[in-house]
Amino acid sequence: xxxxxxxxxxxxxxxxxxxxxxxxxxxxxxxxxxxxxxxxxxxxxxxxxxxxxxxxxxxxxxxxxxxxxxxxxxxxxxxxxxxxxxxxxxxxxxxxxxxxxxxxxxxxxxxxxxxxxxxxxxxxxxxxxxxxxxxxxxxxxxxxxxxxxxxxxxxxxxxxxxxxxxxxxxxxxxxxxxxxxxxxxxxxxxxxxxxxxxxxxxxxxxxxxxxxxxxxxxxxxxxxxxxxxxxxxxxxxxxxxxxxxxxxxxxxxxxxxxxxxxxxxxxxxxxxxxxxxxxxxxxxxxxxxxxxxxxxxxxxxxxxxxxxxxxxxxxxxxxxxxxxxxxxxxxxxxxxxxxxxxxxxxxxxxxxxxxxxxxxxxxxxxxxxxxxxxxxxxxxxxxxxxxxxxxxxxxxxxxxxxxxxxxxxxxxxxxxxxxxxxxxxxxxxxxxxxxxxxxxxxxxxxxxxxxxxxxxxxxxxxxxxxxxxxxxxxxxxxxxxxxxxxxxxxxxxxxxxxxxxxxxxxxxxxxxxxxxxxxxxxxxxxxxxxxxxxxxxxxxxxxxxxxxxxxxxxxxxxxxxxxxxxxxxxxxxxxxxxxxxxxxxxxxxxxxxxxxxxxxxxxxxxxxxxxxxxxxxxxxxxxxxxxxxxxxxxxxxxxxxxxxxxxxxxxxxxxxxxxxxxxxxxxxxxxxxxxxxxxxxxxxxxxxxxxxxxxxxxxxxxxxxxxxxxxxxxxxxxxxxxxxxxxxxxxxxxxxxxxxxxxxxxxxxxxxxxxxxxxxxxxxxxxxxxxxxxxxxxxxxxxxxxxxxxxxxxxxxxxxxxxxxxxxxxxxxxxxxxxxxxxxxxxxxxxxxxxxxxxxxxxxxxxxxxxxxxxxxxxxxxxxxxxxxxxxxxxxxxxxxxxxxxxxxxxxxxxxxxxxxxxxxxxxxxxxxxxxxxxxxxxxxxxxxxxxxxxxxxxxxxxxxxxxxxxxxx
Length: 954
Known about the structure:
Layout: H1 21-36, H2 47-57, E1 79-83, H3 84-90, H4 95-99, E2 137-141, E3 144-145, E4 165-171, H5 176-179, E5 186-192, E6 198-208, E7 215-226, E8 231-242, E9 258-261, E10 274-277, E11 280-282, E12 290-293, E13 296-299, E14 302-305, E15 311-313, E16 319-321, E17 326-328, E18 331-333, E19 350-364, E20 367-386, E21 388-395, H6 403-412, E22 416-422, E23 428-448, E24 452-471, H7 476-483, E25 485-487, E26 493-495, H8 496-500, H9 519-525, E27 530-551, E28 554-573, E29 585-587, E30 590-611, E31 614-628, E32 632-644, E33 649-660, H10 664-668, E34 672-680, E35 685-693, E36 702-713, E37 722-737, H11 741-749, H12 753-756, E38 759-761, E39 767-772, E40 775-794, E41 800-817, E42 820-823, E43 841-850, E44 854-863, E45 866-867, E46 882-883, E47 886-897, E48 903-911, E49 945-953
Parallel strand pairs: 2-5, 35-39
Antiparallel strand pairs: 1-4, 2-3, 4-5, 6-7, 6-49, 7-8, 8-19, 9-10, 11-18, 12-22, 13-14, 15-16, 17-18, 19-20, 20-23, 21-22, 23-24, 24-27, 25-26, 27-28, 28-30, 29-34, 30-31, 31-32, 32-33, 33-36, 34-35, 36-37, 37-40, 38-39, 40-41, 41-42, 41-43, 43-44, 44-47, 45-46, 47-48, 48-49
């Protein structure tokens, strides 16, 4: 990685620091640690070499931190530049894996998160900066927006062309004035090598220590000039296959650990309210079936315990005793309880590929036209929860009911019993996600006058997203009919409904004992919920750059421009989803669109240079006026400065107003229905309800205020050393938030009457469904310090050594709702939303030794100790609130072969070298029964992985 600094010399350490006295020592400690540790962030490019190469390639460059093109200028917005050399050196499965190692990115969605769910984001790579959500991190390709690949407006990085990536710019701060809506937390910009010439190929294979998570990558790129150098054409393509990993119960670290309510707790007995326990499973279900009611029967007019209650059905339907262990609501500790969390996928099987082409032609020495076309396609399996029932009514004449049970029901005078069952023998509700993205760009760029340049382009993009096609997803009405099986007049077992409707095709379903249902019954019961979505995006933009005049300290550089954007969305669903017939899915058709018109301007004004303690002082300002067709006009701005005291010390700071407008789903989604288990505070019971997520057309844009201040130090007394620190503070007002069902219940119980209106109860007082819609509810804040440190130098005849380190300290990641602020910084497993878990410390470090033909890098990824939830008081709210620190080490080695093309390299890497287990980090929501006990958004759930590969350039 390299950090661009004045005259391209920063050496990767451009972060800022706001002087909080208590944190100054932290700066010194982390910098010192970086220098003496044997590892630092994935070694970024040599800053001096990087500057020389870029200066030789072109007179002016535009790094994503600014739109102004000015040689040697560095914007005050902290920007990390990851160059191609370091991407090759790290040999990740894909670029997103590498970018997500940066400590500033927390909670990014990846295919390898080890968390259950059949959500539409499964299998995608969505960048998430500061744990503020992927919809607040703007993803660009060569400085251009990319059509969304999800209804939350996020872009799947898997679908971006990767073989030609020259560098990745990562802005760790608000950038709406420069790049528009969504850049609240930051920007990730993939910059392509648009002048690539030659042929390069590569192939890579990987496998985990357990023999799963197999991966393959192949790529080919060709670039050539034509028409005597006036034109240039590039074609590139790649294919990736990432095999799924096994289940959590295939790993030694899996112990069915969960956070549960303490059944012995009372407000006065001094016991903790929650327990962290191993071997936690369901108390009201088994995989063969559990009799859950009635609890009592009337014998001779006296109510007495039902002897059938809490008995389970064995493999052949025989009745067996059931030891529930220590029961706590719908969960139980120990005993015969079974955990569905052990049967989720640690990594989803994923295949994707991209194709990219670009042609440019110089019409005149001052005008060049170009065209681009890109295509990306991804497909992955989605594995969610298994089908479950808690109180299925079974009649006494059910044909599959064991004879002994029938006889006992007759003796007890029972006409029905209730059965709870988890259908692990059917497998999880599994489906498929398909994403196909097309992108076409036509534009022109040129120069005129004295140093003026311009560029314009029109871009059309569209994404077709298909999600669902679930297997093992019962049509609930069909299931009820199939389970109600009786012996027909001809002695054959049939559905009771078939007796009155012989043509209903119902096939009887045996739920007693594991694996006893017939294929015909499965075919009748299971349906196919499918959602098809099309996203469209059209963008037209024009930018003018130049230096209109000079003042006492030098020329004033400007960039002005305009942009027009139209976003559209349309979704369709299967007919059964329209009537909520499925167990999961139940999508609804929707459509909507909006337009955005932007005018923007940015300027760099030199205020002083060549003075004592002021080698250079530049002011950077930007403003953008945006008009949304759905929510009106809004202005964003940025004001920053860079102050070089001398050639060793720089101070930099920026303040900005940023925005995020509601995305298409937040505005227009018509409704998605999922089953969810809740704890009802009114009835004091747990049961399954339907959560219906829908859109809200009345949403206003979020507004965010961002501040950063810091320094860069490159001492002359030690050549090659660079240190930096950056304090950041992001405050979001009117945060667009879709509450979880449990949060709606909690807020209603706390007296928030507006949230009570989203809860629907039946005549018996039980909740039938909860409506979840996005609202401008909260205020959110992210605050902390980023550190970078590095040194590189020659070791004589041995070679060149590079040490680098990037660290992030989270002081606050809070949400304020109803006047109550909850700070999640220091939570390593947060509530029911793992992505918002923000460890206090994250560190990425590396040490690289390069001998010329051979290089090796040792990388350390450190995640600091934390809590399940920092608001919990240990011994009062929970018995064990700690999550231990963990370090992962990665080792890569590259050997360059001579005499084969321009350059041919073979390489190998071991990811998680020591096969470090993830720390136990169960989320603490009482309704979250389907989890592995580890936060897969933070920790490695796969284990040691091996990769080998070869790449050549001719």
